[in-house]
Amino acid sequence: MNNFEYSRPETAEAAIAAVAGDAKARFLAGGTTLIDLMKCDVEAPTHLVDVSRLPGLDAIEVGPGGIRIGAAAKMTDVAEHPAVARDYPGMREALLLGASTQLRNMASIGGNLMQRTRCSYFRDPSYAQCNKRKPGSGCAAIDGVNRGHAILGTSELCIATYPGDFAVSLMALDATVHVQNGRATAFPIDDFFLPYGPSPHIEHPIGRDELIVAVEVPASAAARRSHYLKVRDRESYEFAACSAAVGLELEPDGRTVRDVRVALGGVASKPWRARQVEAALRGKTFDEPTIRRACELAVEGAKDWGHNGFKITLAPRVAARALMQVGGLE
To answer: Which of 239, 263, 329, 249 is nearest to 291 (CA)?
Structure first.
């Protein structure tokens, strides 16, 4: 790890100015992602600008239209908030399953959204080929060990998997990410994570001097009846082999789907919204055969890169199981 300067500005404007004036400066909140990357020599900032104590940045505000979560709020504080437990149970489950207790007590909501892939080729600079770490160098994972890598949203330049849990629940619930840099900008969660395309090292539509200030999640019947299911190789702290965030609203007859939300984690280059599944279920009878048929659509366009083909079978099963659990069929 290299030497670096540390500062703690008192306002968001001062923090943004500090980062804008130094090409190798980085924002620091909980540090559970950034410090890890610094230890791996993937990140080498010369200046860490601490935003963890900026006034109001850790606020959790609940209103009739939804919930606004400050970017510096800790994962634990959000998961334990009564409104989250009551109105967004799937989001709470994703937070609790996303990290150990010690990490949740430190990790911030904004930093969680910005976490980077767990691809071993990205995190080990001894591998020269990594288009995320060194654009134009190639992708060692394509011909390497890629059991944990993505089957959806990949390209010939990168097949790394987005590793998070919380953002998958946000994807299912149509969240919005608010960013500040002289002006306020809001991104629908699906637009906040960029497809790999020709530049897999560019993961978000914001500059390094733009500060995430909050996440807003709208209230909905589907959010109140939501669930997050995570399947992994071991029950202790581990990243998802596949996960599903789902929300459900039934018609008054209790049998017909009025609204349904499905997002997948652990299988794609970004939190993956399975809109084909949703379209196939809306207006249909909520029963196991219908659910399983619809969930097969979740992996349309998926690609087996050699070791990860099992995810093509696993993902529809995880999505179907999550839906049946939230709908009381399992």
So the answer is: 329
Judge residue 9's burial from the number of C-beta atoms within 10 Å of its C-beta, 0-12 exposed, 13-18 middle, 19 or more buried: middle
Give the position of tokens 């709470």: 92
25-80 pLDDT tens trace: 999 999 999 999 999 999 999 999 999 999 999 999 999 999 999 999 999 999 99
| CA-derived radius of gyration, the chain | 20
Helices vs. strands in the chain: H and E counts, helices first: 14, 12
Residue with tokens 């994807």: 171
Task: Report the CATH number of the 222-326 domain.
Answer: 3.30.390.50
Confidence band for 216, pLDDT divided at 50, 70 and 90 = very high
Contact (CB, 8 A) for 69 and 78: yes
Using pLDDT thresholds of 50, 70 and 90, give the confidence band for residue 131.
very high
The pTM score is 0.96
User: Which tokens sit at 58?
Assistant: 């850790």
Q: Does the pLDDT of residue 123 top 90, yes or no? A: yes
Residue 193's pLDDT band (cuts 50, 70, 90):
very high
CA 169 to CA 167: how far, in whole Å? 5
CATH of domain 5-50: 3.30.43.10
Give Cβ neighbours of residue 102 (< 8 Å, ≥ 6 apart): none
- Check: CB of residue 131 under 8 Å from CB of residue 157: yes
pLDDT at 2 over 90: no
Task: Give the C-alpha distances (Å, rounded to integers) separating 25 from 19, 74, 117, 192, 199.
Answer: 5, 23, 21, 22, 22
Cα distances (angstroms) measured from residue 275 to each of 115, 172, 249, 280, 316:
24, 10, 16, 9, 13
The domain locations on the chain are: 5-50, 222-326
End-to-end CA separation in angstroms for the chain:
49
Phi-psi region at 266: left, alpha or beta (left = phi > 0; alpha = psi -120 to 50): left
Residue identified by tokens 């969930």 is 295
